[in-house]
Specification:
Layout: H1 22-38, E1 44-46, E2 52-54, E3 59-61, E4 64-66, E5 75-79, E6 85-87, E7 94-96, E8 106-115, E9 122-123, E10 127-132, H2 135-143, H3 151-176, E11 187-192, E12 195-197, E13 203-210, E14 213-222, E15 228-232, H4 239-245, H5 249-262, H6 277-281, E16 285-290, H7 302-305, H8 307-311, E17 332-336, E18 356-360, H9 364-375, E19 381-385, H10 393-399, E20 401-403, E21 410-413, H11 421-425, H12 430-442, E22 454-457, E23 460-463, H13 476-496, H14 509-522, H15 536-547, H16 569-574, E24 578-584, E25 591-599, E26 605-609, E27 617-621, E28 647-649, E29 654-657, E30 663-669, E31 679-688, E32 691-692, H17 697-709, E33 714-718, E34 722-727, H18 728-737, H19 748-769, H20 782-790, E35 820-824, E36 833-834, E37 839-841, H21 850-860, H22 879-891, H23 905-917, H24 938-951, H25 957-971, H26 975-985, H27 1008-1020, H28 1025-1030, H29 1037-1045, E38 1055-1057, E39 1073-1075
Parallel strand pairs: 2-10, 15-19, 16-17, 16-18, 18-19, 32-33, 34-35, 35-37
Antiparallel strand pairs: 1-4, 3-7, 5-8, 6-7, 8-9, 8-10, 11-21, 12-20, 13-14, 14-15, 22-23, 24-31, 25-30, 25-31, 26-29, 26-31, 27-28, 27-30, 33-34, 36-37, 38-39
Helix pairs in contact: 3-12, 3-14, 12-13, 14-15, 19-21, 19-22, 21-22, 25-26, 25-27, 27-29
C-alpha cells in the first residue's frame, strides 16, 4: 500500500529548537506515522433499490458496499423492513415474495445501513416499496368489474391497503417529529378549524385535545406519485405565528420539518433524512402561493391568512430568523398566482420549476391544476389552507378532507398532543375501516338485540348500534357501521359530483375495492331478512352492499333480488332503451319533477345538458326516502337506500351512470325569482315510464294502457301542485275501489272518477281552500272575494309606483308552494304516513284520507296561524282534512260525515271548564297547551280551530286568514309595502321592524297568538280577547290595544258549540252552544 502524507510540524517537533539525537527524532515521529497508517475509514454504500413488488413475485435488492481498510468486516442493518421480506445482515440483501395479504400495501422510510463496527453506520437514502394487488384484483381495479375476482381476494387487498396506511402514518410522524411528539398545551393562536378525513391514508399531523376529545387541525399525506399534501385548518403562516414559530424551538422544528417534508428531495440530505434547519434555509426553493390583499378585519387572517406578508415580502420578523428583505430566506423565491383573492393564474400553478404550492382560500380549479400536473409526473408539495368562510365541496371530493366543528369554536393548539405515535395514528377513519374489513373477512358475530336498544316509534324500529353488542361487548358500530358509513359518505360525495371512483388514482383503491366487494355481495342477497333470524354475516354483507352502491360508473350489474321494490329486474334490464329530451323552466322554488322516464337496472345511462341557460339543474334516480324497515321483524325486504344522490349538471358535460336497482328519473332545479329561462337535458339508455300529466279522457286512457303494458312497477301522476309516485299495484287498487267495491275490477269511468277526486279534494281542493288561484284552480269564492273587496285589498298602490294591484290574487304574493311530492310505497319512512316533501304513505293514496290531507296541510301551513308556535304544528294543518271531508259530505248530500268523529270536542270542553273553575291563567302553561310533545292534546287543540270557524259561521274564515297572512308576510319585506297595507290588514299600530328591542312589538316578530287574535277580530269585527282567554291563549297588551284602535269593542262570547263525535254538513248555531263558565257540563243544549 502506498500512502502519501504530509506532516505539518509543530513546535513540539521543531528540530531547530530541540537538541535531539536522530534516534530521538525518529522515536518521536514514528507514533504519528503509525497512527496515520492505522486510522479507520468508514465504509461506503450505494445502489438503487426497487420501489415496487408484486404479489407472488420475487423482490430482491443487494446494495454495493466497500471499505478501503483491509480486513474490516462489514455488517448490514435495516429499519422498517417489510413484513414479507427477509434481510441478510452479512450481504445487505433484502428479498422476499409478497403474498395476497400484502397486496396494495406500502412500506415507507426503509433505510439500509452498513458499518465496519468501528465507525458510525452509513446509509442509503430512505425508500419505500409498494406491493401491487394480485393480478385478479389489479384487473378488477382497472376494469371496474368484480366478475373475475373473488370476495376473499378483494377483502384481502382492502386489508393490505389499510395495514399499509398504519405503517405509513408512523413512518411519516417519525420523520416530522424526529425527537418524538412535542406536547404543548394552551397555545392560543385563534381562528382554528378542526378537520376530518373522509379518505383513509391521511396522517394526523397537528392534534390537540379539545373538549375532552382529540381533534385534528392539520393532516399530511403522500400520494402514490410522490406528491405531498398538507391540509391545514390553522393559519400556520400568518405573520405573528411565523414569527413565534421560528423563534420557539418546538414550534420551529414542527413548522420547518413540515416545509422540508413538502419540499421532497430538496428537504433531504444525502442520506435521505430531513436536512438541518440551517441547510434547509440556505437551500434553493421555489414557492408558488395564492395569497390575498383584502382586509377582513381579523388580524392575522387579513386577506387570505396573509401568505402575502410572509412570502410576499412584508413580513419582517424581529429576531431569530435569517430572512432576506423579501421575507424569505435568501435562496428562496416566490411566485404569486393572483392579483386579487378570487383571480388565479392557473398557468403558474402548472410551472414545473416550482417546488411548493401554498393555496389559501383554495378554489376547485387551483386544486385540480396542481394535482393534475402532479399526476403527469411532476410531484410537488401542496399546502391547502381550509380558510373560512368559503368551503368548496370539490376540494373535499379530490382530497378527502372536510371541516368539522365550528370555525372560531377551537382556539387551543398543540403539536403532536397524543400519548404516542400509535395513538395519534389511531385517530381518523382508518381504525374503523380496519375493524370493518376484519369483520367481513372473519364473519360477523351474533349480536344481541336487547329491547331497550331497539325502540319502536310508530311502527318503525330503530336500533342504537353503539349499544347492540356481541358476547364480547363489541358493538355493531365498532365492528361494522362506523367503517361502512365512512365508505358510504365518501361514495356519496363522488356520486354527487358525478365522479367515477374507478377514474381516480391508486390512493382511492380502498374505495374501489369496497365497491367491488359490494357488487359480489349484492349478487347473492335474498330478501326478506331479519336481524335475529338471519345469519349475521349474511345480514351485514347485504347491508355492506347497500352502503357501497356507486352510481357514477358504468359497471353496475342489476341486483337479482330486489325484494318488494320490484320483481321485474330481468325484464327491465333486457328492454330496448331510448334517448329522450326533456325541457323545463325553473319556478321560484327549488324543486323536482317527474320526467316519465325510467332507468333500467344494470344499464349505462348518460345525461347531458344541451342548453345555455344559467339555471342550476339537478338529476337523480328515485324520490323514495329511506323506508326500508331494516330493524323490524323480517322487514329487511329491499335495499336500504333506494334514491341516488343528487347530481348538479354542468352545461355541456356528459355524465355516465348506472344503477343496480333501476328507478324513475327526476330532474330538478334551483329556484329563480324572475326571468327564468328553460333548460334542456338529453338522457340516453332509458325507458318510457307511465306518467299522467293531462286529465282529459284520451290522456287517461293512454295512461291506463301504459300502466298495463309496462314492466315497471312504478308510475307517476303529475299536477301543477303535487306529484304522486306510486307502486303500480297501488294505483290499480285505487282504481278498483273507486266505485266503493273492491275486487270487481275497474272501468275507464272509475279511473276518471279517481283522478277527479284526487285533484278536486286532495290537491286542487286544498290549495283553493288556502286561497290560491291560478292554473288548474278555481277563482276565489264569493265570500273570500267579498272579504278582499271589503278590506280594499283589490286595489292597492302597493309599491307606491302609481300601479294598483289586486293583492288577494297577486301571483308573487301568492306564488304556489313548491310541488308537494307524495310516495305510495310498501312502507312510509315513519308510521303509516310520514310528513315532509315527499310525504310517504304505506298504502294507496286516498283522495279523502285524513292522513293524506293532513300531510297536504303541512305543505300549506303558515307559521303565524299556529297558536304557541310548535304546540300547533300537528294541529293547525288538520283544518285541511276536516274541510276536505266536510266538502265531500256536502257533495254527497249527507247530513254528516259517516265516520269522522274529530275534533275531541267533549274532552276539550271539559278541560277548559276545569281550567276556568281553577282560575288558570291564559299562558303556555295552561293544561290545553302545556304539553310539548308532537301530538300532545292534538285533537283537543284542533277543537279550538274548529270552534273559531263556528264563531264566524264560516269555513271560509281560514281562506281569509291564509290570504291575509301571505299578504302580511310579503308586506313586511319593505317599509313601502308595509306602509301601503298595514292599516288595511288591521295592524296599523305596528312598525315593520324592531324599534324598541322587544320581540313581538313589531310586525316582523309578531307572535302567532297575536296575529291570529288581531286578524280574527278584524275579519269578524268583534273582539276575541275573552274567547282566546277562555281557551288558554295569551295575547299581548299591544295586540289588545291594536284591536281597540280598530274600534272593535264587542266581545265574542265565551261559548262552546256543541258538536259531539261527528262532522256535520251544517255548522252549529248559537242555539247549540254551552257557556264556558267553569260550571256547565257537556250536555245537549236546550232551546229556551
Amino acid at each position: 500500500m502506498l500512502i502519501f502524507f504530509t506532516v505539518i510540524c509543530t513546535p513540539v517537533l521543531s528540530w531547530a529548537a530541540d537538541p535531539l539525537t536522530d534516534e530521538e527524532k525518529i522515536a518521536a515521529i514514528l507514533p504519528i506515522i503509525f497512527g496515520l497508517l492505522d486510522s479507520n475509514h468508514a465504509p461506503s454504500i450505494s445502489g438503487t433499490p426497487g420501489t415496487s413488488a408484486n404479489v407472488g413475485g420475487a423482490y430482491s435488492f443487494t446494495p454495493t458496499a466497500s471499505d478501503m481498510d483491509a480486513g474490516d468486516t462489514l455488517t448490514f442493518s435495516i429499519t422498517n423492513k417489510p413484513t414479507w421480506a427477509t434481510f441478510d445482515t452479512t450481504t445487505g440483501k433484502l428479498s422476499g415474495s409478497p403474498t395476497a395479504a400484502d397486496a396494495s400495501t406500502t412500506t415507507s422510510n426503509i433505510i439500509i445501513s452498513v458499518t465496519d463496527n468501528k465507525s458510525a453506520p452509513v446509509s442509503l437514502p430512505a425508500f419505500s416499496i409498494s406491493v401491487g394487488a394480485d393480478t385478479a384484483v389489479q384487473d378488477a381495479l382497472a376494469s371496474g368489474s368484480a366478475d373475475a375476482v373473488t370476495t376473499e381476494e378483494l377483502l384481502s387487498a382492502m386489508s393490505g391497503v389499510l395495514n399499509g396506511f398504519t405503517t405509513q402514518c408512523e413512518a411519516a410522524l417519525n420523520t416530522l417529529y424526529p425527537n418524538g411528539l412535542v406536547p404543548k398545551a394552551d397555545v392560543n393562536i385563534g381562528m382554528l378549524q378542526s378537520l376530518t378525513d373522509t379518505t383513509p391514508g391521511w396522517i394526523p399531523w397537528i392534534v390537540a385535545n379539545n373538549a375532552g376529545s382529540p381533534k385534528v387541525y392539520a393532516y399530511v399525506r403522500e400520494l402514490p406519485n410522490g406528491t405531498r399534501v398538507v391540509a391545514s385548518g390553522i393559519p400556520l403562516f400568518s405573520p405573528s405565528e411565523m414569527k413565534a414559530n421560528f423563534n420557539d424551538g418546538a414550534d420551529k422544528t414542527a413548522i420547518l420539518n413540515l416545509l422540508k417534508w413538502l419540499a421532497g428531495s430538496k428537504g433531504k440530505d444525502v442520506n435521505g433524512q430531513l436536512k438541518s434547519d440551517t441547510d434547509f434555509l440556505n437551500s434553493h426553493l421555489n414557492i408558488t402561493y395564492h395569497g390575498g390583499a383584502a382586509d377582513w378585519g381579523y388580524g392575522d387572517w387579513n386577506g387570505l391568512f396573509k401568505l402575502d406578508q410572509w412570502i410576499g415580502g412584508n413580513f419582517n420578523p424581529s429576531t431569530g430568523v435569517t430572512f432576506a428583505a423579501s421575507g424569505l430566506p435568501a435562496n428562496w423565491t416566490n411566485t404569486k398566482t393572483n392579483a386579487s383573492w378570487n383571480v388565479v393564474d392557473l398557468t403558474k400553478l402548472a410551472d414545473a420549476n416550482q417546488d411548493i404550492f401554498m393555496l389559501g382560500e383554495a378554489t376547485d380549479e387551483a386544486i385540480d391544476t396542481v394535482l393534475a400536473h402532479a399526476a403527469n409526473g411532476s410531484p410537488k408539495g401542496l399546502y391547502v389552507q381550509y380558510s373560512p368562510p368559503t368551503y368548496n365541496t370539490k376540494v373535499n371530493s379530490r382530497l378527502g378532507i372536510k371541516k368539522s366543528g365550528a370555525w372560531f369554536g377551537d382556539d387551543q393548539l398543540a403539536y403532536g398532543d397524543s400519548v404516542s405515535l400509535a395513538s395519534q395514528c389511531a385517530i381518523g377513519s382508518t381504525p374503523a375501516l380496519i375493524a370493518l374489513v376484519h369483520s367481513l373477512e372473519t364473519g360477523l358475530p351474533d349480536f344481541n338485540y336487547e329491547a331497550g336498544d331497539c325502540l319502536n316509534n310508530i311502527g318503525t324500529v330503530s336500533c342504537d348500534l353503539n349499544k347492540v353488542t356481541d358476547a364480547a361487548g363489541n358493538s355493531v358500530a365498532q365492528l361494522f357501521n362506523d367503517g361502512a358509513s365512512a365508505i358510504r359518505s365518501r361514495l356519496l360525495e363522488w356520486d354527487s359530483s358525478g365522479i367515477d371512483v374507478f377514474s381516480l388514482g391508486s390512493e382511492y383503491d380502498l374505495f374501489k375495492l369496497a365497491v367491488l366487494a359490494g357488487d359480489k355481495y349484492r349478487a347473492n342477497i335474498q330478501y326478506p331478512m331479519d336481524k335475529i333470524a338471519t345469519d349475521d354475516t349474511a345480514f351485514y354483507q347485504a347491508l355492506f352492499a347497500d352502503f357501497t352502491v356507486h352510481y357514477s360508473r358504468e359497471g353496475n350489474a342489476y341486483q337479482p333480488d330486489m325484494g318488494d321494490f320490484t320483481d321485474a329486474q330481468a325484464a327491465l334490464n333486457a328492454a330496448t332503451t331510448k334517448t329522450a329530451i326533456r325541457t323545463y323552466t325553473p319556478t321560484v322554488y327549488g324543486e323536482w319533477t317527474s320526467t316519465g322516464l325510467y332507468a333500467p337496472p344494470g344499464k349505462v345511462i348518460t345525461v347531458r345538458r344541451t342548453d345555455s341557460s344559467d339555471s342550476e339543474v339537478k338529476f337523480r334516480f328515485n324520490l323514495l326516502r329511506e323506508s326500508t324497515r331494516l330493524w323490524n321483524e323480517n322487514k329487511y325486504s329491499r335495499p336500504r337506500y333506494m334514491s341516488s344522490p343528487v347530481v348538479t349538471l354542468e352545461k355541456g358535460q356528459t355524465y355516465t351512470f348506472s344503477t343496480p336497482y333501476g328507478g324513475s328519473v327526476y330532474l330538478g332545479w334551483n329556484g329563480v325569482e324572475s326571468g327564468a329561462t328553460p333548460f334542456t337535458v338529453e338522457v340516453t339508455g332509458v325507458l318510457d315510464n307511465p306518467l299522467l300529466d293531462a286529465f282529459d279522457a284520451v290522456s287517461i286512457q293512454s295512461f291506463l294502457n301504459d300502466v298495463l303494458l309496462t314492466d315497471s312497477d312504478w308510475v307517476d301522476i303529475k299536477t301543477p301542485y303535487a306529484e304522486i309516485h306510486s307502486l303500480k299495484s297501488y294505483v290499480l287498487k285505487s282504481f278498483d275501489s273507486q266505485d266503493g267495491t273492491t275486487g270487481n275490477g275497474y272501468t275507464p269511468e272509475d279511473v276518471q272518477a279517481y283522478i277527479e277526486d284526487l285533484n278536486n279534494y286532495l290537491i286542487a281542493g286544498n290549495y283553493e281552500y288556502a286561497g290560491f288561484t291560478g292554473t288548474g284552480l278555481q277563482p276565489l269564492n264569493d265570500e273570500a272575494s267579498g272579504f278582499c273587496g271589503e278590506f280594499s285589498l283589490n286595489s292597492v298602490d302597493y309599491l307606491e309606483d302609481g300601479t294598483l294591484r289586486e293583492l288577494c290574487t297577486d301571483a308573487i304574493i301568492h306564488a304556489k308552494p313548491r310541488i308537494q311530492h307524495i310516495n305510495a310505497d310498501i312502507n312510509a319512512a315513519c308510521g303509516a304516513l310520514c310528513s315532509g316533501n315527499p310525504f310517504d304513505s304505506y298504502a294507496p293514496i286516498d283522495p279523502l284520507g285524513w292522513g293524506e290531507n293532513h300531510e297536504m296541510g303541512h305543505n300549506l301551513q303558515r307559521g303565524r296561524l299556529k297558536i304557541y308556535d310548535g304546540r300547533s304544528t300537528e294541529v293547525s294543518n288538520n283544518i285541511f282534512p276536516l274541510h276536505t271531508q266536510w266538502r265531500w259530505t256536502v257533495d254527497q248530500g249527507l247530513d254528516k260525515h259517516p265516520t269522522q268523529t274529530s275534533p275531541a270536542n267533549q274532552e276539550a270542553f271539559t278541560l277548559l271548564q276545569n281550567a276556568i273553575a281553577a282560575n288558570t291563567p291564559a299562558n303556555i302553561n295552561h293544561p290545553l297547551w302545556s304539553g310539548s310533545g308532537t301530538y300532545d292534546n292534538a285533537f283537543l287543540r284542533l277543537s279550538f280551530y274548529m270552534q273559531l270557524a263556528y264563531t264566524q259561521q264560516s269555513w271560509d274564515l281560514y281562506t281569509k286568514l291564509y290570504l291575509m297572512e301571505r299578504i302580511y308576510t310579503d308586506a313586511i319585506k319593505s317599509d313601502t309595502k308595509w306602509s301601503a297595507v298595514k292599516d288595511l290588514l288591521g295592524f296599523g299600530s305596528y312598525p315593520r321592524a324592531d324599534s324598541d328591542g322587544v320581540s313581538g312589538n313589531d310586525a316582523t316578530t309578531l307572535s302567532g297568538n297575536d296575529f291570529m287574535y288581531i286578524a280574527a277580530s278584524n275579519i269578524a269585527g268583534k273582539n276575541y280577547s275573552d274567547f282566546f282567554e277562555a281557551w288558554g291563549i295569551e295575547v299581548s297588551q299591544m295586540a289588545k290595544d291594536q284591536v281597540a284602535a280598530l274600534g272593535i269593542t264587542t266581545q265574542v262570547p265565551k261559548l262552546f258549540y256543541y258538536v259531539h263525535d261527528e262532522l256535520p254538513a251544517v255548522m252549529p248555531t248559537m242555539a247549540d252552544t254551552i257557556p264556558l263558565d267553569g260550571t256547565r257540563t257537556w250536555t245537549v243544549p236546550t232551546t229556551p
